[in-house]
Amino acid sequence: MFSRKTVCSISMFMIFMFLVSSISTISLDFYHDSCPHAETMVREIVRSASEKDSTVPGKLLRLLFHDCMVEGCDGSVLIKGNETERSDPANETLGGFEVVDSAKRMLEFVCPETVSCADIVVLAARDAVELTGGPSVTIPTGRRDGLRSTSNSVQPNLIDTTFSLTESLRIFSAKNLTTTDLVTLSGAHTIGSSHCTSIIDDRFQTDPDTGKISFLPSVDSSLNKSFADDLSHQCNSMKSDAVVKNDLKTGMVFDNVYFSNLLEGKGLFLTDTVLADDERTAELVNVYARDEKEFFDRWQESFLKLGSIDVKTGDQGEIRRICTEIND
Questions:
Q1: 74, 191, 231, 325: which sits with the fewest CB atoms below 10 Å from its CB?
Q2: C-alpha dihedral, 74 to 107 to 61 to 303, nearest 10°
Q3: Could you give the number of structural domains in the chain?
Q4: Residue 47 CA to its chain's centroid (Å)
Q5: Of the residues 158, 173, 202, which one is the last residue of a structural domain?
Q6: What is the pLDDT of residues 46-56, one digit of tens each?
Q7: Among residues 37, 66, 195, 233, which one is catalytic?
Q8: 247 annotated to a ligand binding site
């Protein structure tokens, strides 16, 4: 019999070999000759930015999701302009762009027209997880940047915070991601913050005269009362663009507390809460809440799959000189 560690290693190897065989130009040493210090340079940019602003890791991780789920991992979410992905309302609260841009400027100075913006987005998100205490993931590189970015492709490919589990699974299945991937990657909510406006309408009652929000079990009985009261206090006491940590306990640390929170009725979004309430996902939520190592092991597998959705390689796409615009 194999040990769990051996089985995990075999599983990771099989997933990686599948990705490499399916996308032959992606490899672990893609920049070995052309830009050997590329990954180190991205990591240091992410580290420096995170030390100055503790919200950066969560922003970079969210940026990856919004890039890869729409048109694949091709940096198309970075492009500025009317009717681009970045201009869509679903992406108006995205952050971390300046970190990617900073890394790109440095890489263009050292290795001109070599490292894609798409790879930078994946590497930065990987580093953001590790720098906040999460597992290190060895990822293949060699993605190329996409040549199109349209706002009308955004919302049909992203999970809305009000989605049922079935709706969320439909979105994931279209990207060849499984139910396990959905639960595992939802663990990204262990870091980062969300705007109060994204949870108020779904989970609270708003007084039309004062604008104050309050928790009523009749509006959302799934929320833990003390947690709901804490959320309403934070959102009422701050400006309209106020944010709250996705995990109020350890929101700056990548850990498994997010899953423990779900079991206590302390999920920020409806899409979080349903994971603990539906028999299709509840067992895995319990496993991750008990065993952080199991969550970390599965995270590595699911992150690899997320970062390899519909990548452009070979003669597809381009290597952008500036991440915010397609080359002339």
A1: 325
A2: 60
A3: 2
A4: 18
A5: 158
A6: 999 999 999 99
A7: 66
A8: yes
What pLDDT is recorded for position 282?
98
Three-state SS annotation for 258-314: HHHHHHCCCCCCHHHHHHHHCCCCHHHHHHHHHCHHHHHHHHHHHHHHHCCCCCECC
Cβ atoms of 181 and 116 within 8 Å: the answer is no
- The pair of three-digit structure tokens given for residue 98, joined into one six-digit string: 């300046």
Question: Which are the contacts of 221, defined by CB distance < 8 A and separation ≥ 6?
Answer: none
Q: Which helix (H) or strand (E) holds 62?
A: helix 56-68
Residue 226 belongs to some domain of the structure? yes
Q: Is 202 assigned a ligand-binding role in the annotation?
A: no
* End position of a domain, from candidates 123, 158, 193: 158
Dump pLDDT digits (tens) for 30-43: 999 999 999 999 99
The response to whether 250 counts as a known ligand-binding position is yes
**Do residue 146 and residue 230 come from a single domain?**
no
67 is in an annotated binding site: yes
Alpha carbon distance 179, 284 (integer Å): 10
Averaged pLDDT of the chain = 90
Q: What is the CATH number of the domain that holds 196?
A: 1.10.420.10
Give me the domain span that covers residue 47. Answer: 4-158
Average pLDDT on 169-183 reads 98
CA distance 177 to 158: 13
Q: CA geometry: angle at 239 spanning 235 and 241, to 5°?
A: 85
- 149: which 2 tokens? 């970015």
- Other CB atoms within a 10 A radius of the CB of residue 55 amount to 18
Find out whether 233 is annotated in a ligand binding site.
no
Give residue 206's pLDDT band: very low, low, confident or very high (50, 70, 90): confident
Query: Does 37 qualify as catalytic in the annotation?
Result: no
